[in-house]
Give the backbone structure.
Amino acid sequence: MASLLRSGSVSSIFSGLKRVLTTRGPRYDSLTLHSGQGQPLCPTLARLLSAQRPVENVSTTSQASQGIDRALYRIDTDIRRTGRIYLRDVEDIFSEIKTLKHASSTQSLLLLRCCGSLVPEEHPEVRNKLVQDIWNTLQELGVPLDISHYNTLLRVYLENSHKFSPTEFLAQLEKNGVEPNRVTYQRLISRYCQEGDIEGATKILEFMKEKQLPVGENIFNALITGHARANDLESAWAVLDVMHSSGLEPTTDSYAALLIAHAEAGDAEGLSRTLRECEAAELTMHDHDLLEAVYSLATHGHHVLVAQVMDKLHRQPGYAQDAMNVIYRLVNAGCHETAHQIFSTMRVPYAGEGQPQAPTAGAFFIKHLVKSGTTPMIKVVEYCQDLKEKGLNPLALEQALNSALTNGRPEEALFLMRVMKEEGCSLRPHYFWPIFLHHGKSGDAQKLYDTAKHMLSFGIPVTIETLRHYILPALAAQGLLDTNGTIGGLKEAGVPVPFTVSGIVAFLLDTQEPVEAATLLSRYRVRVRSVLRRDLADSYMKSGQTAAIVTILGQMLNHSQDSANADRDDREAQKVTDEDGENIPREEGQQDIAALFLLDVAIQCQRNKRSEKLLALLQEMEQRGIGISMEGGDAVRKRLDPSVDAAILEALDKVCSGNLTFQPLPREPQEPYSQRSARELEQRLQELQNKNLPTHVVQTALLVAYIRGKEVENAETLRKKMEAENIPLGTGVYVLLVDMYVGAGELEKALTNLEELMAREPDVKLNHYKYLRLALLMAQQGRAQDVVKLVQHHVEQESSSGEDDTVLANQARRLLEYMTEHSALQSARQVLDLLLAHKVVTPSTLLFNPFVKAHLTNDDLESALGEFESICQTHRLTPLKQELTTRCINLEDGERLQKIMDLSIQVHGELNSLYDMVFAFVECGKVHQARKLVETPGLRAFNGKLDQKCKWLRDMGKIEELANLVSVTKDIFDIDRDMMYSNLLKAYMKKNDPDKALGVWTNMQEDNYQPSDNFLIELGQFLQASGRKVPFAIPHQEAAPKSEATPKSEAIPQKEATPQPAISVSESTPLEQFRQALKKNDWTAALDLKKQVEESGGHLTITACSDLVEGLIKAGKLNEATNTVLAMVSADTHPNPRVFKFLLLTLAGTGQVEPIQALERYITDHSLKRRLNYDNLLCTAYITAGRSEEVLDDLLKTVKDVPDTKLEELAQNFPRGGILGILEKHPNHLTQVLEIAELYAARGITSPANCVWMHLFSTGQHDQANEIYQKHLKTSTSLFMFRNIMNHAEKAGDAGLLASLMKVLENHPGLSNQAKGLVYNSWIGILCNRSQFEEGQQVLDSALQTLHLSDLSTRVLTRLKEGIEEAGKKFPYTISIKESGPLRQAAASSSSSSSSDSD
């Protein structure tokens, strides 16, 4: 082998390898154990973290120790990605070790390593102090420290330039009985060389020679540094000759040491010489070495030479992280200008036209400038403004302010706020809270007052919250809270006295000092804000100071006191004008506040069984003349136990008697007419007519209510009446009339009203959604050309801010689909061109699908492909690409298939297109062709896309296709085989096929792939549950299995798991930035990054997309969430069901029907549709939108048209819960629902009749309910539902309703005892709530005549027993604890009272 390497036959290969190694450069050192084996952390630590356990206190420390292991593992991942970590992470681990009072040898070693150059943000002094603290703690804990620990300590000392004596260090080793090794001597030599002490280094070298220890390259490189710092650069160069004579070739590190040496000396010629010599040796200087030279030039004052070195930068992959690390150090050293020069070389994304901005560009630089305190603030502001002007970071000033506040720099923060104020930025009160906390720790009251003064000077009010939670606690913590002094100090700062007093009262209530608060109010007669009502109740319950509490309550109610700072809810009595023109006095409810306060106290007294406190409070209120309204008194009585002391009821009656102060009952403000129902408006109209008052306002509101309620006849009648009275209709009413007639399908009336509107106001146009609805109705009646004219007339307007882009797109899609399906292709094209030209909708595959589909429907593949090509080239979209592809595959039309592929590559890129083609071949059963595609040279794994496809095939039950896909892709480079096999395993498990599931494990062995612990655990448990023998040892599940949401790089190793190397993802990739954006709740950035990932050919996991959707919904970005899910479902995937249902619930709650309908076409899996409760939620959306009649019309049409072959699907899709909601909110629809129920029943589906029966029964209409029961339900074999009746009874506390229900159920055939038991549980529970325990026992006795005690709830029985025994009687039954295992659950789920009726 040696002779072969010396020969020239491989010289070219060897030099090529050399070039690769030098141009790429080494990445960051991970937390590596430099043992003899030289194994890096990731495999070694993976084994250590899973196997190693502390020797002592295993039971109490293992969990915490495992947490330390996880934290260290994550730190290692950060180092591999960025080359740095944060001090707080190290401190957190150190704190955990101190708390645990234990650390393993490995943990100690890794923690020490984290205190050097891996923390570039911190000054070396800070890092030195931390490592010394850690070292001392480890010694105190008795952690075994070997030579590797001492060597790591030496390395940290060197990185931090810590001054220490090598001889003393050796002496310490000898004292502790630790034998130094070669690495120890190398690092001691480096220490001498750092100081330019060649003599000291020589002594160590001689000692190494005596011990016959090898001298490696590291020592020669250190000697270069040593000679240079001894001002002997000639000798430094001579070291290279010595290396040659010793058989060592100088490396890039050697020349880097020389480069830094000349940089420290400011020798321009030496720098040039070094770079020339390095290049002549066919070595390439790495970027991080060049940056080190720049650092040396800047810190030694040679700024003019910085550009000479920076010109040589290659900016190779990883440059950004190298640059960031050196920027941190330069800023710490006060060289901010050089740091800015380096920052300017980083590839920062600019916000070009049509591209989203990058609001975080340079944030690390700005934040560290502020944190370090080495840069004048005026320069920081300049850098911030430069970033803003260049469009790199519009939030630079805000980020600088955040850094100042976070790092305890109040003066800098105030300076930045002043600049932000001048530039028109918004300031908020909470910006000042960290400053108050900072000054509070220092105990300087004057600085607190000065900060309040600064707040006011910026135009920011000192809020009650600021006083209560920040200023006053800070003063109290230092013993400086003197009320008079505080009020005076804040008054000088500009805070009004009443406001300060209110804040102090709130603070005193928080600290349970109501007496001091009352005393303060006796001196400063200010009004207490009513928002402190609950705080007052809490203070009373904890302090018991009745007199003081009632005094404060009186001040809260006292309207005679002036309070300039009272909030809008506490304004004095004022008069407002009602919409009718009548003057209505609207007074703030004094009694209501007192009643609410009393109710708060009553609830707490009831809960804590402290009724004596309530009595004392009522008596004190009576003495002070504070009364409450009768309604308030009733509310309090409802909260009291029936057995409450009569004295309390008597005292409450006196407070409610009306003979005390503050008597007038408040008149609650009336709702605006726009918020009232049609029935309420009808009543109001009648009242005004009886009084001969003007009615035009009410009639207009009533007409609008009729229109929105789709009450066409009532609307037309009222309109004629208004026209007869010459009451004009507004523009908005005409628009609503047009929309109402469109919804009713009456096109001519809609157009007539539109013409009247246009004649009155020619410039008025319908909004986009309304004219698109009208256009669809016109198209349905065969007026395609009129559709084009209508759209052309109304399209020229700006979109309303309230219009939903998704709703518009779906309405446009429905219009285009109808037109293309009914031979109006050219008109449809004109409509779409108009909508796109005026940016009503944005181009999407949904809009273009109908044009391709129209040709496919006619089997005109050539025209479909031509349409497809035109759309691809014009809009870069690929509508129905997969359907076209599969048709060509089935026709074996290679020429057209190639054309589709070429077009797809132009739009989606080669990798995306190739995988889509593979999927199409697999789905068509062409496995051989799919395998040939996969064998494309250079094809890399697209794990995200593969995972999505596997899940889709799995969910759709296409197991054969999934198995073929797993087989076809097995040889792709870097593919996640564990993911592929796991999906196949889950598919077989879902099918309950243990043989096939076990076959996956066998296939893995054939493929020489080691199954993960999670795979073996999942398979093993499935085989056990199937009663099959497990042919392998199931690993111990000591750590939570890695979920689909866990990135590979963050997976925690488990016991017996095969160590896997950590996957390093550059922080600069859009994928990693996306994950960070999710963590920071930066949804705008997350959406932009998702787009970047997908445009670059990547795909996010389903879990990541689900997290994004959930976050968007919670942030109120419903449009963006809907668009994201639409994009997912159109790509044959979907969010996880929980998030999907969350979206549908939110859309339904806001009445957004169209987005829900847009999603329906993609939900092809009926089981998923049921899990999402889709039909009920769609119905709920219609109800919320006031469009209930549309649901009923659709159900009526469906039941008439559906063929017998689809009756099962018809029954499953009936929205039971939705229909109950319609009947509850709109009982006037009962007749129509009855008609629907009869039609369904005629086809053998009784669930609609069941819903009507429940509604009638719950509302007391028992005769009508019985007719339906006898006709449709008594002999039906379908599921009999009555849960809604139980819910109604429990809500109203109506035991009689349940008694009536039991009479029906007793004779109902086939009803299980468990179902009857549920009704008895509710019945007895209601009686127990009323403390009617004897009646409850009578019901139980009756139940046990046909049921067993085990059929009833243990909880209800226990409650009944306690009530009986508290009354001094004996409970005659023995309650046994029941199991809640699978059999019990199965029995419950099979009962007829399942919740299906209340979905």
User: Anything to note?
Assistant: The first helix runs from residue 2 to 6. The chain has a mean pLDDT of 78.
